[in-house]
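Moderator note: this is an archived Q&A kept for reference. The question asked for a predicted structure of one protein chain; the sequence and the answer are reproduced below.
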Amino acid sequence: MNKHIGSDFDDFLAEQGIAEEVSAAALKRVISWQIAEAMRLQKVTKKALAERMHTSRTAVDRALDQNDAGMTLATLASAARALGQRVEVRLVPEQEEARA
């Protein structure tokens, strides 16, 4: 019998021990996309964003790299401010499993 029958994808990730890693990667993809989209809409170049953030273009490249999950909250806040945005972070309870 397949032990995954009836379980969802989140359960599978947890069983594999990679749930937090996958969640962090997904969040980084979304955040990087949001920064890039704000840049596109405002016609802000990487160089200009780096200047506004008082950092290097390499740091901006890392912030925009969807595969680099190491962005700090300080970098995120700096990028947001430089684009006239703000960051909202909140903790929410995990969804309880539906009871049969």
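Archived answer notes: The radius of gyration is 18 Å.
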